[in-house]
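User: We ran a pulldown and think these components assemble together. Before we commit to crystallization trials, I'd like a predicted model of the whole complex to look at. Sequences follow.
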Amino acid sequence: MNNRLTESTAWKALEMHFRELRDLSLRTMFVQDPGRSERFSVKDQGILFDYSKHRITDQTLSLLFQLAGERGLAEKIEAMFSGEKINITENRAVLHTALRAPKGSAIMVDGHNVVPDIHEVLEKMAGFSNQIRSGAWKGYTGKPIRNIVNIGIGGSDLGPVMAYEALKFYTQRNLTFRFVSNIDGSDFTEAVHDLQAEETLFIVASKTFTTLETMTNARTARSWLLEKLQNGQAVARHFVALSTNEKEVSEFGIDTRNMFGFWDWVGGRYSMDSAIGLSTMIAIGPDNFYSMLEGFHRMDEHFRHTPFERNIPVIMGLLGIWYIDFFGAMTQAILPYDNYLKRFPAYLQQLTMESNGKYVTLDGERADYNTGAVYWGEPGTNGQHSFYQLIHQGTSLIPCDFIGFRTSLNPLPLHQDYLVANMIAQGEALAFGKSADEVKKENVPDSLVPHKVFEGNRPSSTFFMEKLTPEYLGKLVAMYEHAVYTQGVVWGINPFDQMGVELGKVLAMKIIPELQDVQKAVSHDGSTNNLIRYYRG
Ligand code: G6Q
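Assistant: Here's a predicted model for the assembly, 537 residues in total across the polymer chains.
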């Protein structure tokens, strides 16, 4: 195997194939091949994944599978699941899949089976969640907890917020949930402004327990609580920690009996089903949380054991590569037709962009091909009244993922049919457009015809499921996690570190004292000095 991606046999064949295919329209492809929608769709895990509206033929797919083979995807999948230290820059295993492994299975890290440890934490989380949900856990003044505030950022925030919003239908409604992440004091202030301290639990979620934003917000929360309750002993009843760092948790003043642990082989953006999911479990209850884990696990099994030709995350990942590296598409739209999934695009932004937004390969060289796309999106139908114009008639090619459900959790008359019709129609319009002849037949004045033409040939996938349940949410998240890994393997990069977030943090630590002390000399570039002086006033 040649290590250089762009010199591999399959890559070169794909380049030639792209030249033949790039001018072929989806209209022609569907006319010439009426069976393509059956062939280019997978029904598995209760998901209909229709990828027939992509600019592909059987040959495209077979070359993409060949590429995956040449890059050793099957072996790399096995390496991840079996706990090899595939995060080579941090010398760590990558085992978010172990977090949802069934009790009784064995996954070894450095000769130790981690599955019993995982289930021990899950059981502790379940016990605590039940105490909060039933009102048995009392605050310092003896009142039950009614408000839960999760303090965390990045991977310790986006998953919990997304899951809470996605599964709101299943939440216990007499509990209020808030999520504080930003260092901006407005975030904390607004989150607690109408809360009673004696009924409020703070969950400090931080893998490292050293993150500036989270620790600053946590200290502010402690001061807020102490100011209201006037006794240091209150902290034990109102603070719990989710972390891998027992020492820092205890130094902060949280009793480590109120700490829920996880491990360094769980990446932040892959942690919503670890202890970081405590707020989710309190909200939806342990049984629903376990069914979410079951959904994750089923998709793990699908990814691990299904041949590439029917493997949903593998096909998703390879299609992304087809567009990013051959068509030059730089973005991917995520368009859920379910309002509960409103934070899902934001969650996927971190999962995909922090994982695959890298130009350095595992060999330490600069990639001579494009890697991670920009992910973005909003729920339909709202997006249709905003940015879809650019997807239909803009100059960029933007592959879209439509995500929809047959059954609404809130079935009001007409709403669901209108919602689903819109989702299906958007994919149809993007793929097949509207020709000048079709526009002219509607008696449109000649001068307006070009404006009303939709050139079509814009690709999309549709993921159709029965209903947004905790289990389906688990499947959806795992599906994208594994698509990300598929791409990382083909690109030969490490999707599990995030060195690119460090530099700005380090520079901020240098700037903080320069903002606080107006006498302090500033020694940056002219622009940075100027900004510092402006702030100083
Ligand atoms: C995720 C990243 C990052 C991380 C946050 C919070 O993969 O590593 O988003 O989750 O920086 O880190 P802590 O959980 O350690 O506070």
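The chain has a mean pLDDT of 97. That may be worth checking against your pulldown data before setting up trials.

User: Thanks, that helps.
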